[in-house]
Specification:
Elements lengths: L1 H8 L2 H7 L15 E12 L2 E12 L3 E5 L6 H8 L7 E6 L3 E2 L5 H7 L1 E4 L11 H10 L14 H13 L15 H14 L4 E5 L7 H14 L4 E5 L3 H7 L2 E6 L2 E6 L1 H5 L2 H8 L2
Parallel strand pairs: 3-8, 3-9, 6-7, 7-8
Antiparallel strand pairs: 1-2, 1-4, 4-5, 9-10
Bound molecules: adenosine-5'-diphosphate and magnesium ion.
Amino acid sequence: MMALQGVRNFTRRDQVFNFMIDSDQLVPDTSKGMILYVEDLSVSFDGFKAINDLNLYIREGELRCIIGPNGAGKTTLMDIITGKTRPDHGSVYFGQDIDLLQYSEPEIARIGIGRKFQKPTVFEQHSVFENLELAMAANKRVWPTLTAKITPEQVDRIDEILLQAGLMEMKFADASLLSHGQKQWLEIAMLVMQQPRLLLVDEPVAGMTHQEMDKTAELLQSLAGEHSVVVVEHDMDFVRSIASEVTVLHQGSVLAEGTMDEVQANPEVVSVYLGE
Ligand code: ADP
Ligand code: MG
């Protein structure tokens, strides 16, 4: 009796440890078609509201672009979703059932949210193939049996992602030899090796050529469907080329949502961008 009562009083986090269920095994309930629910979210830094009563819903498999002027709170939003920053109030749910605010940054990564930062961080002294191998080994949820020797199935998986990311001809080249764009694709590919359900990508095309931007748009589009993808981006032409639903952030809140044409025709959005 005592023990039962104790169990009922445990928070979800306690349960994870008590029942030895690893965050690796948590599967979000997406039966309503939603992968991410962000509600009434706020966070202040020294009295400045970087996120201010923000609400955001991401459908499973969609490719969403988040745009907004510098300082709008785009990166802070990603920091909160991934457990790097704790909000002052509000909720963040992965599917209907997983309260992300109860988990640490590494746990959230294992639950299935992959994040790509602005600066690529590949292992320069290793080949492209080895980088993907290392990324694969990092996730025990997906590859529990990875031992010293990689299986043919795992090699196939790496080849598949190399093709998708346009890196096949660089397979055995050191990552240090890749162009800036290729490094960005490799890092996205490394994230994908861990099979995240949700991918967060912060300003992927900064510093890219137009041709590289087109290939990046293609890659992100090809990842949507199987994954849900949220892209934070400054470059309007790029966002337009992706042609997905767009959320405009301004002063820590959602200012507008819709297609690129819809949000660009929105007078409030126009004034925010012209006022920059
Ligand atoms: P964006 O990515 O849209 O350009 P950010 O989320 O980086 O905007 O920043 C939103 C605001 O919050 C900015 O004014 C920024 O200076 C501030 N900010 C972000 N992170 C911190 C922090 N850790 N400490 C203090 N201020 C921060
Ligand atoms: Mg930012």
